[in-house]
Amino acid sequence: MEILKPAAAGTLESSDAQVTVEPGDGKIELSLSSSVMNQYGRQIRDTVLETLDRLGVTSAKVSVVDKGALDCTLKARVECAVFRSMDASDKNIPWGGAVR
Amino acid sequence: MGNTLCSISQQDRFLQGKVDALLTGSGIRRDAHLDYTCGIFDDDWNLLATGSCFHNTIRCLAVAADHQGEGLLNEIVTHLSEVQLSRGNSRIFLYTKPQSAKFFLDLGYYEIARVQDLVFLENRRTGFSDWLTSLGLPKTGVSAAIVMNANPFTRGHRHLVERAAAENDAVHLFLLSEEAGPIPFAVRKQLVARGIEDLKNVILHESGPYIISAATFPSYFLRDDDAAIRAHASLDLAIFSRIANALSITRRYVGEEPKSRVTSLYNERMQSLLPACGVECIVLPRLTDGGQIISASTVRQAIHDGRLDDVAAFLPASTLDFFRSPEAAPVIAAIRAERDVIHY
């Protein structure tokens, strides 16, 4: 899936994460900041990258400001931001899958 | 019932009064120019927290003293970043007081510069450093910088660049890229590029968001009081000193400013702040023609009044040719439609 325009999902409240995606230049550029960076930084990064990979996103600038979100929350926020960035969010949203 | 977050119209005197009271209570000066304000209210419609936007910046943030630690600031910043995104701004700048800066570092903001009572942040980890890299490597020898609006490029501008080019090995010329007047950036850039073609050691840059932009220096574009101009100018210069460091710039050339108040205050700040950062500030007297100072304001006024020939002597051939050519028609029309073409 191709990121067409900047889009964001999520909030900065506790137990949530704010994910912003923008069109990239051929690679995934991830900028992560988290209130639990030392404990879960690697796992958050892996979850975000896996979700992007499952959605077939190969070129994007992704910024994640995490406030202690659970994995399922992170996945949902990443999916939502990606769907919004390609205006797929007003149709049938293929949660958990890729848009074909 | 819980707290309610809602936007506050700029015309709503009653609610804006509450915003003013909260800002004053938190020791924050309200910015004269805001284009979006929101607040969080409790059940009894007391204002607990507020925040505002201006262009691509977030500012005037405050949380009532007895409601701190409830995560209200996070809600405000979330909401304001959604507002910015809906405007198409994914790159956001934020102003705050030094004692509050730490909260924003937890919200995905990164510090660019700070002055006495102001910290300037952006939402990208490498935003500023990427921009510095895009300017290229420092040149060998002595480098100088000039920042100009060139609105439009006159013989006065040319004189300043010529002097700098003669006295230094390399000159970084930053052209204001903010669209702020009847002459579009593309035209200003084209006229500068043509006007300095023969000066091989001058490198033309776009000033981007970090030099005299609506984000760093809003009072350059919109009328404000002296205190605000001084604060903005100091911040702008703090950022400039980082740019100067990255490009090994040791001199900055400016033209003397007899007319515009905001530019003369900026020059005055420059002379007092830059030497401490290792940058010499060189003020050149304005070039005159027949006893009259050459100024871009005068040129705009003349074009506005349809007297281009009166100022022909002020303009280098490249600029004059442009304004006499048919492609200048829309620009001239825009200048004539403007009510006030003089920079305050």
Describe how the helices and strands are arranged.
The complex is a heterodimer of chains A (100) and B (344).
Chain A (H helix, E strand, L loop, with lengths): L6 E3 L7 E7 L4 E7 L2 H18 L5 E7 L4 H15 L15
Parallel strand pairs in A: 3-4
Antiparallel strand pairs in A: 1-2, 2-4
Helix pairs in contact in A: 1-2
Chain B lengths: L3 E5 L4 H13 L10 E6 L5 E8 L2 E7 L8 H15 L6 E4 L4 H5 L4 E6 L2 E5 L4 H8 L8 E6 L6 H13 L2 E6 L9 H11 L6 E5 L11 H4 L4 H21 L2 E7 L5 H13 L6 E5 L3 E2 L2 E2 L2 H9 L12 H8 L4 H9 L7
Parallel strand pairs in B: 4-5, 8-9, 8-11, 9-10, 11-12
Antiparallel strand pairs in B: 1-2, 2-3, 3-4, 5-7, 6-7, 13-14
Helix pairs in contact in B: 6-11, 8-9, 10-12
Descriptors:
heterodimer; A: 100 residues; alpha+beta; Ribosomal Protein S5, domain 2; 4-stranded mixed β-sheet; B: 344 residues; alpha/beta; Aminopeptidase; Rossmann fold; 7-stranded mixed β-sheet; 5-stranded parallel β-sheet; globular
